[in-house]
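Researcher: Structure for this, please.
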Amino acid sequence: MSIILYARKSVERENSISCETQLEYCKMMIKPDERREKLIELVDNGFSGGNVNRDGFQTMMKLVRQRKVKKVIVYKLDRISRSLADFVNIMQEFKEYGVEFVSSQEAFDTSSPYGELIMKILMVFAEFERTSIINRVTQAYHHRSELGFYMGGRRPYGFELIPTTIHDKPSKKLHPIPAEAEQLRYIFEVYGLENLSLRALQSRLLDEEIHPLDGSHWTTAKLSAILKNPIYVKADADVYDYFERHGVQMISAVSQFSGNFGAQLYGRTKHKSDDTDWSEMKLVLLSHEGIIDSEIWLRCQRKLEKNRQIGRSSSNPTSWLAGKVVCEKCKHSMTTIKGKANQNGELRRYFNCTGKSHKKICSGPKCTVYVEDLEQMIDDCITEKLTEILKETHTANVQDPAEINDLKLKIKAIEQSEKQLTDSLLLGNLNADMVALLNQRASQLKEKKRLLETRLEQIRSVQKECGKPIDLAHSWKHANYEHKKAVASILVHQILISEDGSTKVIWNI
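Model: Predicted structure, token format:
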């Protein structure tokens, strides 16, 4: 068995006690008869006490669960956790595995009921302190944002961070990286002026061998985030008007939107069923020069919004087989795409391998798999499957009468037991514990009776319908899109499309 000395420190501060000093205090709590025990020192330096995702802490708990720990010693209680809920669970686990817990700065027996009570009270204050710190940090973040400070995080593509001073306070400023900025101008110009989707934009960049200079890869998510970010725009009055019309809180005055500087959007959006609420978002001008002209940037926003509206308002479903069709070669899903119009002006949709279009790891089927053709084939297969199910159901044996009688007997026995319980309660002279026990028993009998009656009703329903089978195949032929999708979801596990275009259906039943 081992004794663990655990230390944690959030951040390096001048007046905060180091992990090394914490461990020295912990060693002072080792009793003389424990000197020969194996000591394990575990340290989490630079970790918050707000959660338990810490390497040293997780190692400690692993050893505890392996029953290799006799005692855990810390400098203070909040070194373990600042969350009361986490702390109580940790103490409960220590108790379960027979682990003593000692704090060098809280002088009481933490294994006693009184000590456990004091620990919980102390943790209430520790959690309160943590909440207060979070609120202060949040307020400071918003204040600095409103003053035009860049609030950190991963640097936006196209910029580097250089030291600067804002309102007599040291900060960092975004400065364009010429080569990356040139790529950004090309991305905005191409997307804004040409009829390209984000997927087509990604493919064009790859075809022209224009790759991110930071070693990453172009994805539709990355391109979308770039195109939406006002940090790149030369914010002018039109940009101010755009965000104001969207309900964004404008921190900087309109007179400051001279068309020179980029802007920062922060806060939280609220999503509705048909739109996005930006009322809790804020926009402030920063001190760096923008890269993209407002006209092009706004044109891209209008295009992005139009595409989102088209996606939301599209009333034509893609296919009731959506989510079921898979490329057998790469195992990626296949989605529907509108093809070119035929001689009659009709657009024929076809299934596209995402491993080919999205991941660039597959060549996909060598022939075109049209949506209508595959739906017709699966429609016929499901009709056949439903016909088989109908025959099996219709030829099933009627329920044995003995089971019905057995169910009735069990229900009758429960009713007698319920009557006995009622009589006992009416007699009185029962203490609170006995009354609670009888009420609990009555609830159990009631639930058991309900289940038996439900089963009995099911059997009777089957008997009534015997000889009157529902024609599932006929209903399927007249089903709408939603019903077909629901039935396909139940019956079909996957539809595999091979490289030569052949199809294999994997059923759930």
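Researcher: Any notable elements?
Model: The domain at 159-313 is CATH 3.90.1750.20 (Hect, E3 ligase catalytic domain fold). The two ends are 54 Å apart (CA to CA).
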